[in-house]
Design a protein that fits this description.
Length: 62
Amino acid sequence: MTKPVAETKPASGTPPLSPSVRRHLGKSLRSHYADSLTEPVGERLETLIGRLDTPQGRATRP
């Protein structure tokens, strides 16, 4: 089970990020990567994802 971000402790010697900074970073990252969610998935990635549905040991190689 993972802890909510607010409960995690920063690495030793690293100052904690304020809630406003975390919100700003979250919004910026979502905005930056939003376009990648609408782009088509490449053929190689589709093949790898398809292999996840194949029982282990029965994967076919192209």
